[in-house]
Each structure stands twice: as structure tokens, then as C-alpha cells.
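Next comes this protein:
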Amino acid sequence: MKKTVKIYNILLTLLFLGVILICFLNDVFRFYKVPDISTTENRKPASKPIIDFSLLDPFPKNYENYFNDQFPFRQDLSLMNTLICFFYFHQSPLPKEVELGQHGWLFYYKKESEIYNGKLKLDDWQVVSVVKDLHDRTLMYRKKGIRFYVAFAPMKAEVYPENAPFNYRRATGGTLTDKITETIRRDSVIQYIDLKEGMLKSKVYGRLYAVNDNHWNKIGAFYGYSEIIRRIRLDFPSVKLLTKSDIQFTARKTPPGNLAIMIGLQKYLYETDYVPNFKNKKGQFSIGTHKKPDWAVPIDNYEYVMNTGDSTLPNAVFIRDSFTDALMPFLGESFNKSTYIFDGWRYLTNGAIIDDLKPEIVVLLIFEPHISHLAGVW
């Protein structure tokens, strides 16, 4: 028995030394070339640092990053670990980034779980400042003859708690979103559109969110769109509301969403999305022409425009994030001209564009985890 244990220890030691030796031999002979771009992390691996004897402090850390990134067969071993974790143990390989929920649904862990579990909080004065900002914006727009609406796109777990991971336990005293919306509802000036209630009621008509992504799918976007337009039509009856009879959704197998990509399973999972086919589509898509502010130069999708050419309809501006992407084909049919501004999750008033376009309607549409940005908390 002792002899077997001794042989085992020797073999384990030799294996460990062999692995270390392979790494250093590869550093010299480069028999294994690491891909220029990591397929699982979507970034360039760290390059080998040059020793600067006048500044040695950064070298150990830089070399460690280089060694970790250039480890031979690193991506292959990482993929093997991912496949075993996900398909055999039914666990997320990156549980602090993406969580595996029920029935194979993926959920974004970080800020979304913190809000859902009640860990992310704002002080009372910060909540008051958010609501005051929305109150003041409403009055500011009103002076310009503009109706201002506020809507929050709910997180996946809020609409499908039955598919959420076991460690997603909704805050018993309510979430930060609950606290903010309750305060908004007590303000008689702000025109708030409750999307969550409408989405919960619409679940009976089909799956509203992507399985492998944290966004709603096209069907979910359609019902979110319906809630927005129904509220706007109370003030603007001429606004066109698309119904299910105007659109036919076609199920289509598509590449998986952002959460599957984050855990490196984009080649092993797929999504079923629902493509809308409009019976009488009028909206024409174009890129906006307004000059970006200096801080917005890195943003590729800063301004989009949809035109129907129907001057009997009002014009609208949407200050948005990625949740509005799936809404655009529907919203674009309901207005004469609809402009979509993505300002890098700042959700600013964008006064220069508003003054130039002079729309009758401005909608602030924020994905729930980003509401705190209005208080300066990212």
C-alpha cells in the first residue's frame, strides 16, 4: 500500500513538473500558438512584457497575466471545463457572471441579481433626487410643448421568476425598482408607464424573453411596445397601435444571445427567436445625422431614425438603451418620425437634439438595472 502511494506521488509530481516544463518550453519554441483573439472572452491575450530594469514593479503582474493567457491549450482546457460544468453538472462555468436557472434558462448574475435579491440599495435622498429629476424633466419638456413619458423595461427574473436560479430570492421588502416606482407613482406630474404588469399579463401569449440572453425577444418587445403606445394614445389618439392582426411572427432558429457567449457556449447553444412580418410596413430606417458630443464619439449606435412619412402622426424621441432595439420596428410604424438616442447609459435630456427635432413626444426607456444611473450609481 505504501509503495503504491509512493509511486502515485512520484507520478503526480512528474506530471506537475511536466506541465510546468511544457509552459516554459512553449515560451521559447512557440510550438503552440495562442489565437490572436480569444473565442470565449472576445479579447486579445496579453503579450509578453519586456523587462525594464528601471521599473521592475509592474513586471511580475504583467508576466503573470501573459503566462495565464499564453498557457498552452488554455482555450481547449477552458472549453472542456465549460462543457463539463454546463452539460454534465448543470452548472454555470462562470457563476459570478452568468447563472443557470430552471429549464436551461440563463440569467445575468451581477447587478441584476443584486437588485432582485435586494442587495443593491439607494439612500432615501438618492431616490428622491431621481424622482425630482424626472419631475423637473417633465416640466421642462412641457414648457416646450412636449409630453414626457418614463418606462422601465423589467429584468428577466421579474417576468419569469419560475425559471430563475435557486439563489435568486426576491427581496421580501421590495427591490430598489419597487422603491423608485412607488415614489414616482406618488408624483402627480410624472407620466409613468408600467411595463412589468403588462408583461406579466402577456406571458400567456408566448415566451417573452430569450433563453440565452438577458433581453426580451421580439414577442416580448411587441407587448412592451403595446403598453407604451396604449398610454401615449390617451394623449395622442392619432398614434397608430399595431395589433396582432397586423403582424405575423415566424419562429426562427438563431445564434444564442449574450449570456451564452459570455460563458463560451455560442457554438453549442441556439436561440429560437420570433421574426415579425408586417402586413403593411411603412417605416424606413436610417442613421441619424446629429453630430455626436465629444464624450459620445466611441458610441456606434448613437442615433437611429425611423420615418413613415405620415404627417398626420406625431414625432417622437426615445432616449434608450439596448432594450429598445427590439422595439424599434414596432415603434417606427406608430409615428411620423421616431428618433432613438443611445447616450451610453447616461439617459440625459439630450436637449440639443430635442430642440432641433421639436418632437411632440419624448420617452425615457431604461432597462431596470440601469435606473440607478439617474442617481449617479453605476
User: Anything to note?
Assistant: DSSP finds twelve helices and eleven strands in the chain. The longest strand covers residues 247-254.
